[in-house]
Amino acid sequence: MAVKLSQSLKQSQNLMMTPQLQQAIKLLTLTHLEMTSVIAEEMVENPMLEEYGNGNEVPDAKSEADYKVEKLESQGAEAKSENFDEAPIVKQDNDDFDWQKYVETYNNSSSTPSMVGPASNDDTPNYENIISKGESLADHLEWQMRMEELTEAEMKLALEIIHNINDDGYLSLSYEEVISNTELERDHAFDVLEMIQRFDPVGCGAANLTDCLLAQARIAEERSPLLEKIISNHLEDLHRKDYSKICKATGASEEIIMETSKLLHQFHPKPGRLVSGQETHYITPDIYVVFVGGEFVVQVNDDGIPRLRISKLYQQLLASNTGEKNEASEYVLEKLKSAKWLLKSIQTRQQTIYKVSKAIVRQQQEFFKKGPKYLKPMVLKDVANEIGMHESTVSRVTTSKYMHTPIGLFELKYFFNTGIGGKNGGVDISSEVLKLKIKELVENESPKKPLSDQKIADLLSREDVKVARRTVAKYREILGIDSSSKRKVKS
């Protein structure tokens, strides 16, 4: 029997995570205090990092030793490269890595600060402003939901799903029970569920572990069909490390199965735990907005972030290496790569926060000049289009980030509000402004003759803010204001 042999060339892409990339994404989402803590830990663990000067020292120009280090680093990367059946997106040569593309794909940062915090104590926020109650998982998901353009039926179902998600991020009821009262078709209702599962943290609203992990696997720009097949059909086999059974079912080699399954280490089996509303945390502003020379200037808070550089001593040690490889040189080379990634990660984080904050300030000029009543409707897409980033990147970078302004301390999420009251020729205002207007009307009403929801709607229409009575009722309840019958003072 003749055996026919053939060769074929296959080109594909596969996303592979390294510890350095995990660190970069983590830094982008951390608060200022959390980031300074991470940097302090890295400085203890990595001898290649050193702090220099007090802000006045200028980094040395590249020396011959620097070029030798770069050459050694590239040689080391080439020596460690291997041939795989699938080509990884992230190349061993980190300089060729498309940083922005990677950050946008994973929306689930030389620290030489160029933007400093306030120069005087007058710009420091009051102590009363630095304590904030943690946001609940439902609040976090609902905020993202309100950034979507949903019909009333879709919003009703979305709220039903969100408020039936437990602390782990899973549905506390069966999906059939949740959709039993919706007027949407089954497939349409399932689309609403999938939308919520794509919110941050990804995977919330799943019925079980398989659905949760699949939702997280689908967020990558370059999806892995093999990984999704493993999650759908072979989680138990993977737990037992029965790779041969998975190989037989999928047709992939054991090496590829093992490499692909490593991506699961980056997923969270209980995504709801990533958001907690129970702990009290202290706020250090990530951004300061100051009024200078007739305009608002954005300054990223670099206070507490050390000025870092690669240790000259270890650079010289690498440069003096004649080419032979030993355990010491491999260790130093690995620490060099880790240090460079940390510096690049910090710089990227600060630059991204700066771009987003600057876009917010530019679009909300009236707010900064006149106060909260002049907050304009603004959604994630508005900022994303201006700075050339993905909406999910903007959403991630605004989480737990605070801006200290001349009129108070605000979370970046505060500035994102959908427009209300713009139908039938009315004027669009943000939901936060609508709350302020309703609150003001109630505060100025007669105690003996309080305003009904319909009367408030009528008064708002005189300002060209045309909202329905039920909309007024909803925001009144959000503000914790009783109905007019309960507010009435009986003589």
In angstroms, what separates the terminal alpha carbons? 106 Å
Could you give the count of β-strands? Answer: 12
Number of helices: 22
Helix content: 40-55%
Which spans of ≥5 residues are poorly predicted at pLDDT below 50?
71-132
Protein name: RNA polymerase sigma-54 factor
GO biological process, one term: DNA-templated transcription initiation
Keywords: DNA-binding, DNA-directed RNA polymerase, Nucleotidyltransferase, Sigma factor, Transcription, Transcription regulation, Transferase
GO molecular function: DNA binding; DNA-binding transcription activator activity; nucleotidyltransferase activity; sigma factor activity
Would you give an account of this structure?
With 491 residues, the chain is of the alpha+beta class. It has three domains: 213 residues, no CATH class; 138 residues, no CATH class; 69 residues, Orthogonal Bundle (Arc Repressor Mutant, subunit A), CATH 1.10.10.60. Helix content is 46%, strand content 8%. The protein is built from 22 helices and twelve strands. The strands form five sheets. The protein has a four-stranded mixed β-sheet with strand order 7-6-9-10. α9 packs antiparallel against α10 and α15 crosses α17. The protein is flat. About 13% of the residues have low confidence. Belongs to the sigma-54 factor family.
Characteristics:
491 residues, alpha+beta, Arc Repressor Mutant, subunit A, 3 domains, four-stranded mixed beta sheet, two-stranded parallel sheet, 22 helices, nucleotidyltransferase activity, DNA-binding transcription activator activity, RNA polymerase sigma-54 factor, DNA binding
